[in-house]
Amino acid sequence: MSKPKLLMLHDNLAKPAMDMLRNRFHIEICKTSYVESIPTAQDIIDCIPGSFGLFCSSSVIISEDVLKAAGPNFKVIGAMSVGYDHIDLSLLKKYGIRLGNTLGVPTEAIAELTIGLLIATARRFQETNRELKTGGWKRWTPDWFLGLGLAKSTVGIIGYGNIGASVAEKLGCFKISELLYYSRSEKPAAKALGGKLVSVDELVKRSDYIIIAIALNKDTEFIMNRDRIFSMKPTAVLVNIGRGKLVDQDALTEALQQKRISGAGLDVMTPEPLPLDDPLMKLDNCILLPHIGSSTFETRASMAVLTAKNILAVLDNIPMPNEWQHCIMEKCLVKHDGVHFYVNFSIH
Ligand code: DGY
User: In the sheet that 237-240 helps form, which strands lie side by side, from edge to edge?
Assistant: First the structure.
């Protein structure tokens, strides 16, 4: 019997993941129009017909046209990401498609990067490194490139999921004076660290460091809006490791240009990749990283393997190791304490 087709948007994945998939699927790598570019929606539409599944990352929007083009054999999207904002979840139900993601796998890598980015922004690594390399470092003076410390500061975390919680835990080493967080409900783990659940507005006004670690959805889009950005303390630093659209980027650019806030460290932005002529690129008080939160060798390998396992589970008609709470016929497969069961659920 011939193997079902799996369309992959990437081929440079960890070998164990590729081996697992090659054993059971006929792999087709999506052809892109330009060398080294991200496949466009049209590229995927051209390649996807007849596929059983799609192995993708968060860098490509999966539109309805893609799902239509895939055809009736299409059963699964394996997203090698925690976020699934690139997929319209209501379409999954409509087309009877299951979605797996890699929730929990990149937590530590992203939390570590968050702390690094926060310190790099607060202590001005970008400007100071450039000065050093361009001969600006002539002599030491006591007032040269002063930055901000974490000790005695108030840190506010917007979003207290796995990543927010891990960042908070790591901050425990830095002798901060107060931990504020915003979440839909009080988190016992945050309380144990002395964290205080507050509104976004209160968090924004009181924090010296604001870390955005919340999932992007229609309720959180632009959670850091213009008013909130302009109500930050003039010395405050904003770090975003969630998604670009959580922040009003135009307002943030203005605030940084006018030095209304101290700085921003962004691992995510809008759009990605950010055009070279974007005004953020010119700012010394903004450190930009190309969405590398989960980019450690080990994390990416584990993400690829889990994505492969999620896809294979659908082929074998068994519960995915990590399935997005997916609803077909108003039933939802959920996992609790390692046990899978169905509950009634509906997508709004
Ligand atoms: C994720 O896992 O969602 C990261 O942002 C990488 O896409």
Answer: 196-197, 178-182, 154-158, 209-212, 237-240, 263-266, 286-288
Give residue ranges with CB within 6 A of ligand 1: 57-58, 81-83, 106, 293-294
Question: Do 164 and 312 have their domain in common?
Answer: no
Q: Domain range for residue 33? A: 5-105+297-344
Residue 102 CA to ligand 1 center (angstroms) comes to 9
Tell me which of 262, 288, 314 is where a domain ends.
288
Nearest protein Cα to ligand 1, atom 2: 81
Residues 209, 161: one domain?
A: yes
How confident is the model over 72-94, as pLDDT tens digits?
A: 999 999 999 999 999 999 999 89
Instruction: Find the 152 Cα to ligand 1 centroid distance in Å.
Output: 31
Round to whole Å and give the CA distance between 347 and 306: 25
248 and 282 belong to one structural domain:
yes
Has this prediction a pTM greater than 0.85?
A: yes
Q: Is the pLDDT of residue 338 over 80?
A: no
